């Protein structure tokens, strides 16, 4: 057997590439290197803007030329960095050499020694990861989550009055509406999305062990903490003043924990929708040309939600591992975070793929209200809760002498199917006031939904 040509190992870069390709703009190796170039360039501009170490402010044209190294970063730079790293065996050093080469090509050799000035690799790396993760979350992942939430919100409003049998512990229970049940997910996911949007993306810029030691030797009179803070904040990040060689990654642990939390709520949504489909509450809309089963032509399988489940589990496995690993670094530095952080895109990629499947899946289902009503009509015994509660109210008000309302209804309904006629006959014999009796006689399973319809308004 002849060997295959080189193949990608991850399905995110193969089968599912089209669904996650936007993340590659930021969370790929190339995206990280572009951010590294950005940090190096902006540090050069900061130093020269403040005329440090005999430098002079660059002209607007010179700044534009420098920044074009970032905006024009492409395949040529990717290939050149690969060649440089093959020699340096150090990814950040390769970026420094690339920037130095470009300084020469645009006539700025005079500031070459300010490239990577007083920086440890982690000064560049931590800011670059903060920039790329912030961009990936803000421009790709979070908008996708909010799009899914928006689709759920529309369905919640559309089905707010669609009475359905609830199932607590999988057993028939007090009815709700499909809209209210979907609104629960909208509320949960919106809250988590807001927390994620408020994430602090922290950065440090303080040297080899976070002490500004080399900086202070180079210029004892400069206010290096102030300079560090100004530079980090100029990149749109939040400054971390107290670190070792690395930024402590607590913000990453917090963020990945919240994204993993969102994943698990989405997983709950996917399994619930799957179950509603299996109960016949949702019909699946046939897609032209699609095959549900290789042998059973009638089938439409809920693959969107099953695919989402698997990818949400994979995403949380990666993100939970990152959150646990990244908060620990031996003494002032070890390298475990370097290898771990290269998988950030994997964690977000599986989550984004799941969101894409859920979004598509929600467009491929249609509520069967007749199935909901039929299920309700087959379970009149669920009104036992309503009846015993009314009896208790009547006893408390002195209008009934019934001694144990709960036991009375338990004997009548537990483990039994009771129809409308049997319940009506039972209610007629109850020792309760006539107003309460008439209210119970008028009650149906489909009408026993409390404030489910109105609760959807809590979404705002």
Automatic annotation (TrEMBL):
Pathway annotation from the record: Purine metabolism; IMP biosynthesis via de novo pathway; 5-amino-1-(5-phospho-D-ribosyl)imidazole-4-carboxamide from 5-amino-1-(5-phospho-D-ribosyl)imidazole-4-carboxylate: step 2/2; Purine metabolism; AMP biosynthesis via de novo pathway; AMP from IMP: step 2/2
EC class (word): lyase
Superkingdom, natural source: Bacteria
Catalytic activity, EC: 4.3.2.2
Domain Adenylosuccinate lyase PurB C-terminal: 329-449
Keywords in alphabetical order: Lyase, Purine biosynthesis
InterPro entries: Fumarase/histidase_N, Fumarate_lyase_CS, Fumarate_lyase_fam, Fumarate_lyase_N, L-Aspartase-like, PurB_bact, PurB_C
GO MF annotation: an example: lyase activity
Domain Fumarate lyase N-terminal: 14-308
NCBIfam families from the UniProt entry: PRK09285.1
Protein task: Catalyzes two reactions in de novo purine nucleotide biosynthesis. Catalyzes the breakdown of 5-aminoimidazole- (N-succinylocarboxamide) ribotide (SAICAR or 2-[5-amino-1-(5-phospho-beta-D-ribosyl)imidazole-4-carboxamido]succinate) to 5-aminoimidazole-4-carboxamide ribotide (AICAR or 5-amino-1-(5-phospho-beta-D-ribosyl)imidazole-4-carboxamide) and fumarate, and of adenylosuccinate (ADS or N(6)-(1,2-dicarboxyethyl)-AMP) to adenosine monophosphate (AMP) and fumarate.
Protein name per its UniProtKB record: Adenylosuccinate lyase
Annotated organism of origin: Luethyella okanaganae
């Amino acid at each position: 057997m002849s060997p295959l040509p080189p193949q990608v190992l991850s399905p995110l870069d193969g089968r599912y590439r089209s669904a996650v390709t936007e993340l590659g703009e930021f969370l790929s190796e190339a995206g990280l290197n572009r951010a590294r170039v950005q940090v190096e360039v902006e540090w050069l501009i900061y130093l020269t803007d403040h005329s440090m170490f005999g430098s002079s402010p660059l002209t607007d044209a010179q700044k534009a030329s420098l920044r074009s190294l970032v905006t024009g970063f492409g395949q040529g730079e990717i290939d050149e960095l690969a060649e440089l790293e093959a020699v340096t065996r150090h990814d950040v050093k390769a970026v420094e050499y690339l920037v130095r080469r470009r300084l020469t090509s645009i006539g700025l050799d005079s500031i070459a020694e300010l490239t990577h000035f007083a920086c440890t690799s982690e000064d560049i790396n931590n800011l670059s990861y903060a920039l790329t993760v912030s961009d990936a979350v803000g421009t790709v992942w979070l908008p996708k989550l909010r799009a899914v939430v928006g689709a759920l919100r529309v369905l919640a409003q559309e089905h707010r009055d669609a009475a359905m049998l609830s199932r607590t512990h999988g057993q028939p229970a007090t009815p709700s509406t499909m809209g209210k049940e979907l609104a629960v997910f909208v509320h949960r996911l919106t809250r988590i999305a807001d927390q994620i949007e408020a994430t602090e993306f922290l950065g440090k810029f303080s040297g080899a062990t976070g002490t500004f030691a080399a900086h202070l030797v180079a210029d004892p009179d400069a206010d290096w903490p102030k300079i560090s803070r100004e530079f980090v904040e100029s990149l749109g990040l939040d400054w971390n003043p107290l670190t070792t060689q690395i930024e402590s990654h607590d913000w990453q642990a917090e963020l990945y924990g919240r994204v993993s939390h969102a994943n698990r709520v989405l997983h709950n949504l996917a399994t619930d929708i799957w179950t509603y489909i299996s109960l016949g509450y949702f019909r699946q809309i046939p897609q032209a040309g699609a095959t549900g089963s290789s042998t059973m032509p009638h089938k439409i399988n809920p693959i969107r939600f099953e695919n989402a489940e698997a990818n949400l589990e994979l995403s949380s496995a990666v993100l939970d591992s990152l959150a646990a690993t990244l908060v620990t670094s031996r003494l002032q530095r070890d390298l475990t975070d370097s290898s771990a952080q290269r998988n950030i895109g994997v964690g977000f990629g599986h989550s984004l793929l799941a969101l894409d499947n859920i979004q598509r899946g929600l467009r491929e289902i249609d509520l069967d209200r007749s199935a909901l009503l039929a299920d309700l009509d087959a379970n009149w015994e669920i009104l036992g809760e309503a009846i015993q509660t009314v009896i208790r109210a009547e006893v408390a008000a002195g209008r009934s002498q019934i001694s144990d309302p709960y036991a009375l209804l338990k004997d009548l309904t537990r483990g039994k199917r009771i129809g409308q006629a049997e319940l009506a006959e039972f209610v007629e014999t109850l020792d309760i006031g006539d107003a309460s009796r008439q209210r119970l006689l008028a009650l149906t399973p489909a009408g026993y939904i409390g404030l489910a319809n109105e609760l959807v308004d809590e979404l705002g």
